[in-house]
Amino acid sequence: MTSPSEQTLLITGANGFLAGHVIKEALEQGYDIRGTVRSPESAKKIRHLFAEYAERFSVFVIRDLTQRDNYENAFVGVSKPITGVISIAAPFTLKVEDNCRQLLDPAIQGAIAMLEAVNLYGPSVQRVVTTSSFTAIIDLSKGFRPGHVYSEEDWNPMTYAEAANADAVSAYCASKALAEKAIWDWMEQVPPTDFAGFVDVRVAAKAHIEAYKRPEAGGHRFLVASPFSYQAAVDALREDIPELVNRIPEGTKGMDISDTVYSVSGKKAEKILEIQYMPLRESLRDSFLELLEAERKLV
């Protein structure tokens, strides 16, 4: 990892009490900071607070944190790449008329919107840190629980349906747990694309033979691959093989990651070796149908 002086951290909820201290600590360690707040008034106050760091501290206004695309411009206009996100912003109010509309949905949707924004607009981001709360751990139904020691293994067990009709305090506590669980679920469903290229084994086999046969292939180096993403893969499999729908996570259907990760070009191999790449959908369908047939024979 590069030194702090070469990185920018994006910190949401920058005008909050905790966030202010996080920003101070990060600036003192040498990081540049891009903070987000929900109003121009808050932006003005936080800029004044960190005026001595004006060259390394900037603020971006995002009024609605539940929409992924609202974050797009927060990732641009910095002199050093945004390598980390510290997500502290979250809805908090106890003057509630509608638990779902004012607490539960904003908390859950806001948590996921941030992750989707990082996935789409933050190609340099190496880690996301999210702030939760002890309320995501405590089981209010158990009271004071003398003798019990809470740890990271505990979860607030209140469901969305229960929280929707609960008192405001209980609903707020549940919103923190539900938002955090949504984050963990998202991480499981959307693994990082470690390698963004693929080739069907049949095409790879043909490429080997053609590289041997063709005089013009001598002395060359070939990248035999087409672009790949996990989201495109699961979209294709869920559409083409219905029996896999309950066995493959949905992710964010249709999400395009082309602007967030490198691509590959196998055109040289296409031209010199005269191979034709097989579409990802076709390659996956053939492979998984074979696997399912093998599975049926084993059962």
Q: What does the secondary structure layout of this molecule look like, with pairings?
A:
Layout: E1 8-12, H1 17-29, E2 32-37, H2 40-49, E3 57-61, E4 82-87, H3 99-121, E5 127-130, H4 160-164, H5 168-189, E6 197-198, H6 201-213, E7 226-227, H7 230-240, H8 267-273, H9 280-298
Parallel strand pairs: 1-2, 1-4, 2-3, 4-5
Antiparallel strand pairs: 6-7
Helix pairs in contact: 3-5, 7-9
Description:
With about 300 residues, the chain is α/β, with parallel strands linked by helices. It folds into 2 domains: about 1-130, NAD(P)-binding Rossmann-like Domain (Rossmann fold); about 135-299, 3-Layer(aba) Sandwich (Rossmann fold). The chain is built from 9 helices and 7 strands; from the N terminus they run βαβαββαβααβαβααα. It has helices at about 15-30, 40-50, 100-120, 160-165, 170-190, 200-215, 230-240, 265-275, 280-299; strands spanning about 10, 30-35, 55-60, 80-85, 125-130, 195-200, 225. The chain is globular and about 75 Å long. The protein starts with 7 loop residues before the first strand and ends with a helix. The model has no long low-confidence stretch (mean pLDDT about 90). Keywords: Oxidoreductase.
